[in-house]
Amino acid sequence: MEGEVRERTESEAMTTAFTASEARAMVAGGKWKELVRSFEALASSTNTGVHDKNGNPVHPLDVLAYYFLALYRLRENEKIGRTIEGLASWIAGPTSDGGSPGEQVEPAAPFLLLWVHASYKLLNKGTQDEGLSRMYELLERCRALRSSYQEKLQFDVGSADVTPICDLEQCAPGAANTASLVAAWDRRHKTCACALACHHCHLKQFRPALRILSELTSSSQDREYGALLAHVLLQLGDVRSASKVAEGMARPAGEGGGSDALSGNLDGLLAFARDDFQGCLPKFEKASREAPGEAGVHARNNLAVGHMFSRDLHVSIKILENELSGDRTRALRRPLVLNLCSMYELASTKCEESKRTLHAWLLKNASDDFDGETTRLQKLPSQPGTTATTA
Predict the structure, then answer these.
(1) How far apart are CA 376 and CA 146, in angstroms?
(2) For helices 224-235 and 206-219, what crossing angle results, to 10°?
(3) Cα distance between residue 218 and residue 190, in whole Å
(4) Which of 10-24, 111-125, 182-196, 287-301 is predicted with the least confidence, judged by mean pLDDT?
(5) Does the N terminus or the C terminus of the chain have fewer Cβ atoms within 10 A?
(6) Residue 174 DSSP class
């Protein structure tokens, strides 16, 4: 008996040795590999693994969600498949409680687990069809839950204040008001829709991407979806239709007259698509000054590409080097590093030294999930390319 108590106490101590707050700290530092090692050491020491023989999770939901998020960011798709499929029935759960027709129930799992279970298969060529099917199912589930809560909101006498709901934690019954649940499932629906549109574009399937983004643009006042729609049209070479979308995004004079950063970046992309490389520069310049966060990173990347096509490579390189050394949490993205390496290759036949210096800096500063092959030190293509970005 005493041995059982000691064993249980040690197991409980081990279980609390790795907490969600520690996982959050690792995520903030980009320490995805450390997060995976910590969780797997916990699972190994308690001899429980991730789920029991009945397919139920045996670890706290938030810790489990952080673990799968880390695997997803590290592109450990095979490991995800071996572990998450055992939780498939629990993750999916019932979609209704058998009550009123159309009545939806909250999933048992945090949304992040539903997302990983659906989307990780998109990353493997052999499972992309199944991944698409799962993502469309998740899209419809988000839509149904949003509609269900919107209907309930008409008769809800509770608070109308919206409190953000975390995707990494299960929403306990009664923990959030109806207005917050409507906002959460609306955001999740849009996230799934954008992910599907991006995947279709990656496969050069532009029609379904346009359909998805057109629906978002018509049903939402968020102008970012219009910018994404215009970007897809530009990939098709349809500058006229993209210009019409941009005109529709322009704000009335009392609301800024369309001179905001989002419109400025899109106007720059339109000028770039017309081969007006000098004309795109002031638009990207203004957007890069005004745009906050990620949008500013995109605008400065586009500004660098514009300078490169204007035959001012040294300015292009300086812009991206400054960006990378600034806010690393936002700037350390594959397109920026890829573009910088392409510029090094165009600027000098002795580019390997610059790329090795960049590679060493990335090893020190980038998070675990950054693709080190982006610097292309092993094999240099004969015609380096660059990428303009939107949003």
Answers:
(1) 44
(2) 160
(3) 13
(4) 10-24
(5) N
(6) T
Contacts of 67 (CB under 8 A, 6+ apart): 23, 35, 36, 39, 50, 59
Q: Are 330 and 297 in contact (CB under 8 A)?
A: yes
Residue-by-residue DSSP string for 244-295: HHHHHHPPPGGGTTT-SHHHHHHHHHHHHHTT-HHHHHHHHHHHHHH--HHH
Q: What is the mean pLDDT of residues 174-200?
A: 93
Are 226 and 214 in contact by the 8 Å Cβ rule? The answer is no
pTM strictly above 0.90 = no
Q: Which amino acid is at 22?
A: E
pLDDT for res 296: 86
Between CA 267 and CA 254 the distance in angstroms is 20
pLDDT digits (tens, 9 = 90+) for 322-353: 988 876 666 567 788 889 999 999 988 778 88
Residues 213, 232: contact at Cβ < 8 Å? yes
Instruction: Dig out the tokens for 277 from the structure.
Output: 């490389």
Task: State the CB neighbour count (10 A cutoff) for residue 227.
Answer: 24
Could you write out the DSSP letters of every residue in 68-100?
HHHHHHTT-HHHHHHHHGGGHHHHH--S--SSS
Name which of 68, 58, 56, 65 is nearest 110 in CA terms. 65
Q: Residue 123 carries which DSSP code? A: G
Q: CA 370, CA 108: separation in Å to the nearest integer?
A: 32
Cα separation, 109 vs 305, whole angstroms: 43
Residue 219: CA atoms inside 13 Å, Cβ hemisphere, count? 12
- Check residue 1 and give its pLDDT: 42
Q: What is the pLDDT of residues 253-303, one digit of tens each?
A: 445 443 477 888 999 999 999 999 999 999 999 999 888 778 888 899 999
Cβ atoms of 95 and 50 within 8 Å: the answer is no
3-state secondary structure 179-194: HHHHHHHHHHHHHHHH
- Upper half-sphere CA count for residue 37 (Cβ side, 13 Å): 6
CB 316, CB 308: distance < 8 Å: yes
User: Rounded to an integer, what distance in angstroms lies between the CA atom of residue 304 and that of residue 317?
Assistant: 7
